[in-house]
């Protein structure tokens, strides 16, 4: 450990921690900690006392944040031909998290778009020195992702399959091969590893400086020591940026403020939600080893041990993601530039122990410094990218979840394309900031959630895992009833949705703890629910679905939907149209079911997690017409789904109306009485392809009474309570594709489906003909959309 009042060398052994703790955090008065890297170089002035360059009065785009993310956006916009670009930094370039970043660029990421971004960043950083003449410290080291158990090894094989399809080199290797690649790794408890030969390390401030230099060479104006106070808006459009040195009129604003992106969003005239929160992140630096570690030594990522290790100046740099992170800055902005915060050896000790188990030869290594730097995390471990809902021209790129260096190049490229063309050249749906609503933006929620998110970065994520913090933000009126009946819950866009019901006599705790890549313990429970849907009738609470009402005094509502949607919406009153809202390229923005309830009134139903996106897309294209009105009525209706061949018998018995296809045709909606309840919108559709009905029930109706009525007053018709998991099974078994999570880009052209956007189906359709994925679990690498129960029985049995 190196500090002003500790001159003697310290070893890494945990036995020495008591002695280290007595000296922790003791930087000399009047000094500040040195960063891991050389201090960033200023582009705005010749020195600290130089007269600042005046701000321009107007620009086309203003970028806030001079870290590696902000400079990447500026660089890529300039490369795409943008002019009048201004980048503002409240301190010095790269003086935030970039200065203390560990410098690892790895493609070992959990979702495909993140792998793509990291792969592009790697290539960009490799050639940046040639373009700018600025040394970036780039060294192609490769990396080793270790597996201490079979489940981790299986997850690495899944990652390898994805990377192979993307053309990124990788090799699944045996423990003995690990020893050949890295001399210090203890392999006694390993079952295998994934070797990524293309991974690299760089000097983050130097990369940041190179990007800024290249951007400035393309005409970008960079101003340090300039604080953005707030963004000014008019009629939902960005108009100007107010700084401590004056205002700049602009058309576009990009929030790349890192740790302070949340506060900056809240400071706008119209508050912008940027859901992220900071946590402390620790890593240590050692002095050179007796046999100095070569710069090209592979990076080691031991997720089971919760650590990463890279070579650094002949020694090692090692950090990790602990189980008990320390959130910071909940109260908001409290310092101009991020300094190296207080050391905490007690907190770091579990990661230190893991390091010494993995590399025992480091026991005698001398410590130079324990670095504590803040990183920002989002509620779902994915970065925030895109134009904010409700404010045209306000873009965000922040919340990198400790992967800012790896993502910055690719994320900056995609955001620049988004701003230039209206869409990026890759599918960034999982990163779109519109996946979050205001409910996921409270400080308390974010603080609690990131304490779970940070450990999850290295946790083994098996199919169907759910976040445990920040739950019950939104619940159905039937929540208590379903919970009493044994419902097990999942969360979707902040809404609690029942996954399945635990039968009487089953061990609830053991089923909840069922985490596997193979057949889960609850498989047969869901199978019985699917069987009931196919042979009798099930009732599912689907209140979480997004619901809008679009109305007008004349035909404005119809004209808007005709413009946005693929199918013809000029249908008779009472008819339902399954369609999608398209963009100018003919691609899907979201899918929906539209009911024409009156001549100039439409009821729009979309998936739960498309609520903000769908609302934003509609509002973006609505003309400024006071006679056209859009209302989010999701909270005004609950929804029950009756599925199965005997659903018409149930409704017929409760309503005394014939529900046969001759009297109630498919894709038809009618208000009617069901039991004691009046004004129920009954629709002959199920969203799954199975026979059945949707019941949309106004808020004033007592849902529980109607629910009990359906379950217990229908004579001899067997009805079973079922929930979300079987919904996935049923519609996937009939190949009903839902944009947002079951479509993919690559598969579309080979199958000639009439869809052009989406998220992931079979994660690039890995086994195109056999439809079998390497896990032996299910066909989908997303891990939660299953095929028909009977199809799966063939796989398992």
From TrEMBL:
Residues annotated as domain FAD dependent oxidoreductase central: 422-476
InterPro entries: FAD-dep_OxRdtase, FAD/NAD-bd_sf, FAO_M, GCVT_N, TrmE/GcvT-like
Residue intervals of the FAD dependent oxidoreductase domain: 60-418
GO cellular component, one term: mitochondrial matrix
Gene3D superfamilies: D-Amino Acid Oxidase, subunit A, domain 2, FAD/NAD(P)-binding domain, Probable tRNA modification gtpase trme, domain 1
Domain GCVT N-terminal: 478-701
PANTHER family in the record: PYRUVATE DEHYDROGENASE PHOSPHATASE REGULATORY SUBUNIT, MITOCHONDRIAL, SARCOSINE DEHYDROGENASE-RELATED
Protein name, per record: Pyruvate dehydrogenase phosphatase regulatory subunit
Species this protein is from: Salmo trutta
Gene responsible for this protein: PDPR
């Amino acid at each position: 450990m190196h500090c002003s009042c500790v001159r003697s060398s310290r070893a890494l052994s945990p036995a020495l921690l008591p002695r280290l703790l007595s000296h922790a955090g003791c930087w000399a008065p009047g000094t500040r900690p040195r960063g891991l890297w050389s201090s960033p170089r200023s582009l705005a002035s010749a020195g600290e006392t130089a007269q600042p360059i005046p701000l321009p009065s107007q620009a086309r785009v203003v970028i806030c944040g001079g870290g590696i993310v902000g400079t990447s956006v500026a660089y890529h916009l300039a490369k795409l031909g943008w002019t009048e670009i201004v980048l503002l930094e409240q301190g010095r370039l790269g003086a935030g998290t970039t200065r203390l970043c560990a410098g690892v660029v790895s493609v070992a990421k959990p979702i495909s778009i993140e792998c793509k971004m990291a792969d592009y960043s790697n290539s960009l950083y490799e050639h940046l020195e040639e373009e700018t003449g600025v040394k970036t410290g780039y060294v192609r080291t490769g990396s080793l992702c270790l597996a201490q158990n079979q489940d981790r090894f299986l997850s690495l094989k899944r990652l390898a399959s994805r990377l192979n399809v993307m053309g990124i080199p990788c090799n699944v290797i045996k423990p003995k091969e690990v020893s050949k690649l890295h001399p210090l790794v203890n392999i006694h408890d390993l079952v295998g590893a994934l070797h990524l030969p293309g991974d690299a390390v760089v000097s983050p401030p130097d990369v940041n400086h190179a990007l800024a230099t290249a951007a400035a060479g393309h005409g970008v104006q960079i101003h340090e020591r300039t604080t953005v106070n707030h963004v000014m808006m008019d009629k939902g459009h960005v108009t100007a940026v107010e700084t401590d040195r004056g205002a700049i009129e602009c058309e576009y604003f990009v929030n790349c403020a890192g740790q302070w992106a949340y506060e900056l969003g809240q400071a706008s005239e119209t508050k912008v939600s940027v859901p992220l929160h900071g946590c402390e992140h620790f890593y240590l630096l050692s002095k050179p080893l007796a046999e100095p570690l070569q710069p090209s030594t592979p990076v080691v990522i031991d997720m089971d041990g919760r650590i990463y290790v890279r070579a650094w100046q002949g020694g090692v740099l090692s950090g990790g993601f602990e189980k008990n992170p320390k959130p910071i800055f909940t109260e908001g902005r409290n310092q101009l530039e991020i300094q190296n915060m207080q050391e905490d050896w007690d907190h770091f000790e579990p990661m230190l122990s893991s390091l010494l188990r993995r590399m025992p030869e480091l026991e005698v290594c001398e410590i130079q410094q324990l670095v504590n730097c803040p990183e920002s995390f989002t509620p779902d471990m994915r970065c925030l990218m895109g134009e904010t809902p409700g404010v045209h021209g306000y873009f965000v790129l922040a919340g990198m979840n400790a992967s800012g260096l790896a993502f910055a190049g690719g994320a900056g490229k995609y955001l620049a394309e988004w701003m230039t063309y209206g869409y990026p050249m890759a599918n960034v749906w999982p990163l779109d900031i519109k996946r979050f609503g205001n409910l996921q933006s409270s400080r308390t929620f974010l603080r609690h959630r990131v304490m779970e998110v940070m450990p999850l970065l290295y946790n083994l994520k098996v199919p169907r895992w759910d976040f445990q913090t920040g739950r019950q933000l939104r619940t159905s009126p039937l929540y208590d009833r379903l919970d009493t009946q044994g419902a097990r819950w999942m969360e979707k866009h902040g809404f609690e949705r029942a996954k399945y019901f635990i039968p009487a006599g089953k061990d609830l705790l053991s089923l909840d703890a069922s985490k596997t890549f193979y057949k889960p313990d609850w498989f047969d429970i869901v199978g019985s629910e699917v069987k009931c849907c196919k042979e009798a009738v099930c009732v599912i609470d689907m209140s979480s679905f997004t619901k809008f009402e679009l109305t007008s005094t004349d035909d404005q509502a119809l004209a808007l939907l005709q413009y946005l949607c693929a199918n013809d919406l000029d249908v008779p009153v009472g008819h339902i149209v399954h369609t999608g809202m398209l963009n100018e390229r003919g691609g899907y923005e979201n899918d929906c079911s539209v009911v024409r309830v009156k001549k100039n009134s439409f009821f729009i139903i979309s998936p739960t997690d498309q609520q903000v996106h769908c609302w934003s897309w509609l509002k973006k294209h609505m003309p400024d017409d006071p006679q056209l009105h859009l209302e989010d009525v999701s909270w005004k209706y609950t929804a029950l789904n009756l599925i199965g061949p005997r659903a018409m018998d149930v409704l017929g018995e409760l309503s005394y109306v014939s529900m046969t296809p001759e009297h109630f045709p498919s894709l038809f909606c009618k208000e009617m009485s069901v039991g004691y309840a009046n004004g129920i919108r009954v629709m002959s559709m199920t969203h799954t392809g199975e026979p059945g009905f949707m019941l949309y029930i106004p808020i004033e109706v007592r849902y529980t009474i109607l629910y009990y009525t359906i379950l217990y007053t229908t004579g001899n018709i067997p009805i079973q309570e079922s929930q979300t998991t079987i919904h996935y099974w049923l519609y996937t078994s009939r190949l009903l594709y839902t944009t947002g999570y079951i479509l993919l880009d690559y598969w579309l052209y080979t199958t000639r489906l009439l869809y052009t956007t989406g998220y992931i189906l079979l994660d690039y359709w890995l086994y195109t003909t056999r439809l079998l994925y390497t896990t032996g679990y299910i066909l989908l690498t997303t891990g939660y959309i299953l095929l028909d129960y009977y199809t799966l029985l063939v796989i398992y049995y």
